[in-house]
Amino acid sequence: MSYEQLKLSNQLCFPVYAASRLIIREYQPYLDKLGITYLQYLVLMILWEVGNLPVNDIAKKLILNTNTITPLLKRLEQQGIVERNRSRIDERKVIIELTPKGKRMKAKAAMIPQALVAKLLEEQVPLDDMIQLKKQLEEIIDKLSG
User: CB count, 10 Å around CB of 105?
Assistant: First the structure.
């Protein structure tokens, strides 16, 4: 038996994994200037978009368990970027709120996605290809997470 299915070159997961790591690597210099990790950046993008949210809702949007993001949220709180407060309506829920510092970071972070797109365009990756890939990945994510 040749086990063709076990060759790395035949896997869907590896190019997705490798592209993700390389994209995050491109983001890193910008995130370093903000003093945050990529996962913290994702949390902040959610909060910048929708405002205050319970921890469970943030975890759901990121397709993560709450025990994965809780330590990350604690670090953001220690940095003065977010506050964690118990819900007045339901004591079991912890609501994450941006501090003034967290809100100010939005303007500094606004150019990060544009910088990545510019880098890819510089490398001759057509914008239409990027948009199509994003749509295809969203479809896969939707099917696998549903």
Answer: 19
